[in-house]
Amino acid sequence: MLKTLKSFDLKDKRVLIRVDFNVPVDNDCVIDDFRIRAALPTIQYCLNEGSKVILISHLGRPNGIIDPKLSLMPAGEKLADLLEMPIKFSNNCISEDAHDVTLGLRSGEIHLLENLRFHTEETKNDQNFSINLAKHGQIFINDAFGTAHRSHASNVGVSKYFNQKCMGFLIEKELEFLNKSMSLPKKPLTLILGGAKIDTKIDLINRFIPIADQIIIGGGMAFTFLKAKGKDIGTSLIDPSMIPEVKKILANARGKTSLIFPKDFICAKSMNHKKQLICSSNEIPSDLMGLDIGPSSIDEFSKIIRNSGTVLWNGPMGVFEVDGFHLGTEKIAESISNVTNEGSTTIVGGGDSAAAIKKFGMLNNFSHISTGGGATLSLLSGNTMPAIYALEL
Ligand code: AMP
């Protein structure tokens, strides 16, 4: 059975928390603190219970090389700001010095350890590295949902060395919303998918065919479907290797759920061309590419969203990063946000959709915004999450 944070007496205990502080940093400053804020409830709870908190995280992909640009120091400074308290920092997560600092902690203090991935052993789930990390704590809490689909030393390996271990409030909340969207959704359930990488979303579509009342497919991935349906897509994005899979999906969905594709697109010669044309999905000129959904699609998708009890959204409707191709994503985000206010459950599946709603200033308008990208897709696709499973053993 998975334990939760409230099952343990945390007073005066050294609590090792795996957090996800994998945040964008520029010029030694955190430029998006969404993930740090998401970890606060667990950290704050442990502090209030009188524990000694040791935080571990990765940042980026340094592949075992110490890269000052990927130091967790700026994340530590941001955390100190948010909590309005000083925190201790060690620049090697498994050094003797770091262990000494941990042993010297007083109740209510925080010790943040430097980027785990400055050691190749982290992603190799190395046993000795796990043992050295485990030395920091008496209780282990995993609250890093973003890496829960990976077997690394700091989430899977380390778990073996604790009798007292559990998930934090963030993972608990992620599981609650994401699992409920599949097992007990308020109906009708609408899945909205977009983005470019169709191969990462095939399993998810197959899983939701028997569950969802409708599946809207926009963004760049729509064109592989349209091509498989025999349409001309001009120079739009396509993944030809996925055509056989997509044909299976089209056949599998028949009679079970509605697959809905954009009726029109905003097209241009490339994303750098200012000249745009609204094209029907039946008439995309051979020299143009679809870079956003068009106005009729926005209307149709918004109507479906308004009538949904649950909306689960993953992936932008167009190249939202470029002005001129952002409107489809913005309007869909707005429709989902409006239906949230009317009592529907709305879940944004992390990654680029979360980046988009941040860009549009709508971060507070959804029931849940997942902190995972790949982890969210993996959980929704029905895969076992090794780091969560490790907490049950
Ligand atoms: P993904 O990681 O699969 O969710 O893809 C996100 C990316 O998809 C974003 O960077 C978007 O710019 C891109 N994208 C969305 N729609 C299109 C499109 N019609 N053509 C090309 N790229 C797109």
Task: Explain the layout of strands and helices.
Layout: E1 14-18, E2 25-26, E3 29-30, H1 34-48, E4 52-56, H2 73-83, E5 88-90, H3 96-103, E6 110-113, H4 127-134, E7 139-142, E8 165-167, H5 169-183, E9 189-193, H6 202-208, E10 214-217, H7 222-228, H8 243-253, E11 258-260, E12 264-268, E13 277-280, E14 289-293, H9 295-306, E15 310-314, H10 327-341, E16 345-348, H11 351-359, E17 368-369, H12 374-380, H13 386-389
Parallel strand pairs: 1-4, 1-7, 4-6, 5-6, 7-8, 9-10, 9-15, 10-11, 15-16, 16-17
Antiparallel strand pairs: 2-3, 12-13, 12-14
Helix pairs in contact: 1-2, 7-8, 9-10
Bound molecules: adenosine monophosphate.
Oligomer: single chain
Shape: elongated
Bound molecules: adenosine monophosphate
Q: Would you report the number of β strands? A: 17
Largest sheet: 6 strands, parallel
Q: Cα-atom Rg, whole angstroms? A: 23 Å
> Which CATH top level class of the largest domain fits?
Alpha Beta
Distance between the termini: 8 Å
Q: How would you classify the helix and strand content by structural class?
A: alpha/beta
Task: Compute the number of structural domains.
Answer: 2
Q: Stretches where pLDDT falls below 50 for ≥5 residues?
A: none
CATH superfamily of the largest domain, called what? Answer: Phosphoglycerate kinase, N-terminal domain
N to C succession of SSEs: EEEHEHEHEHEEHEHEHHEEEEHEHEHEHH
CATH architecture of the largest domain: 3-Layer(aba) Sandwich
Strand content: 15-25%
Helix content: 25-40%
What name does the CATH topology of the largest domain carry? Rossmann fold
Average pLDDT works out at 96
Question: How do the strands of the widest beta sheet line up side by side?
Answer: 5-6-4-1-7-8
Number of contiguous helices: 13
